[in-house]
Design brief:
Blueprint lengths: L9 E2 L3 E2 L5 E6 L4 H17 L3 E6 L5 H11 L12 E9 L5 H19 L4 E8 L2 H8 L7 H23 L1
Helix pairs in contact: 1-5, 2-3
Amino acid sequence: MVDRSEDERTASGSLKLARGARVLIIESPYYADINAQLLKSAQAVLAENGCRADRVTVSGALEIPQALAAAVTAGTIGAEGTLYDGAIALGCVIRGETAHYDIVCNNANHWLMETAIRYSIPLGNAILTVDTREQALARAAGGAPSGKGGDAARACLGMIALKQHFAETSA
């Protein structure tokens, strides 16, 4: 069970961040240096909030939603009392010269959200979809907690806290 207290940090106004959660990080290190910064950023935010994380690695951004669906099928996420309270997706897609970029971006994000919504999985998404490597590096922010990996961790922890709030108020 996730612990929450009155003095927790807030994100997006009054949204509380869950403390003590266990999170699944699904990462695609296709751009290893960028992913390392996203991961460092996410891990910093999780550590600040007393959370634990396990990592799984997939080959590319299109495989991230498949990994999340596999975790649901295995019974490790998506229901009360499962191993993980939420998930964080980390990856990067940089525009190339073909339509492949659009296909990867649209499908990875669509199916990630479809799975998260269908199974009520608190999700933080840091699959960067950028035009240039420089844009990706700027968003990864050198692994600082203010980077997109940290933003995804905060989003995940905020959604875990919100899900717990709804469960408590309906009981």
